[in-house]
Write a structure and sequence with these properties.
Two copies of one chain form a homodimer. With 107 residues, chain A is of the alpha+beta class. Chain A has one domain: Winged helix-like DNA-binding domain superfamily/Winged helix DNA-binding domain (Arc Repressor Mutant, subunit A), CATH 1.10.10.10. The first copy, chain A, is built from five helices and three strands. A three-stranded antiparallel beta sheet of chain A has the order 1-3-2. The longest helix of chain A is centred in the N-terminal third of the chain and has 13 residues, at 8-20. The A-B interface holds A 2-4, 6, 10-11, 13-14, 17-18, 20-23, 26-27, 29-34, 46, 80, 82-83, 85-86, 88-90, 92-93, 95-96, 98-102, 106 and B 2-4, 6, 10-11, 13-14, 17-18, 20-23, 26-27, 29-34, 46, 80, 82-83, 85-86, 88-89, 92-93, 95-96, 98-102, 106-107. The first copy, chain A, binds a DNA duplex (30 and 30 nucleotides) through α4.
DNA sequence: CACTTATATCGTATATTTACGATATAAAGA
DNA sequence: TCTTTATATCGTAAATATACGATATAAGTG
């Protein structure tokens, strides 16, 4: 299989990168990493954006598998999907192994 | 400094992720990793897209610092910017250190 | 049962991205 | 110099992404 063949794994990776490539969503991930679990409104209050906008961004992150939401009363508790972050790091770590002398002159 | 503060480093990282979050551009990176150096037309021939479109994608990758282009006669030779890939891997590897038990139960 | 709180979704306006044909530029060969 | 080859850029159309107000839903509270 040619290196540039599109596999479901690569599709998943590109979808994750797309979700993370928006500055607001990237920050939401960092907020969630810091607070462990927080509800939509906690995030809304930490940004200048409208609730509807944040809810939409959370949906994108959820659909990329990067976060999980569980209903708790009227609120939704969001937290990072640790497995997906681990998978992402592994994929990026292994990506383009030939091109950048990894683990040789660096680290 | 709060974890979710936007630093120039984070901006650079998000810009790289954005450039990589397009399937065509992701594939171009893999093509370049395989062939080491190739000209625009080599890439055009490996995709169903028009030359103008590929040239535009190459510009995005170049502006994100992910690839470098050097003029060689009428052609432009592109290659991956190894330093930037190394930096990207390092950043992702260090990202969200608290959230995903990295290096403990896995690897 | 109102009322508050928290959220998701709908409809929509605007901005950005993506793709392409046409065209300009630049180098090399006949 | 004319032609070919390789590329970048311009203008533009179509598709997506982004943001917001309005609204619907759902769970508690008095």
């Amino acid at each position: 299989m040619s290196p540039q063949t599109i596999t479901p794994e690569k599709e998943r990776l590109v979808a994750m990168l797309k979700a993370l490539s928006n500055p607001i969503r990237f920050q939401i991930m960092e907020m969630l990493a810091e607070c462990q679990t927080c509800i939509t409104n906690d995030i809304v209050l930490q940004t200048p954006l409208a609730q509807a906008t944040i809810s939409q961004h959370l949906k994108v992150l959820r659909e990329a598998g990067l976060i999980q939401g569980t209903t708790s009363g009227p609120a939704t508790c969001y937290c990072i999907n640790d497995e997906s972050i681990h998978w992402l790091k592994e994929q990026i770590g292994q990506w383009l192994p030939d091109c950048c002398h990894q683990g040789k002159e660096h680290q």
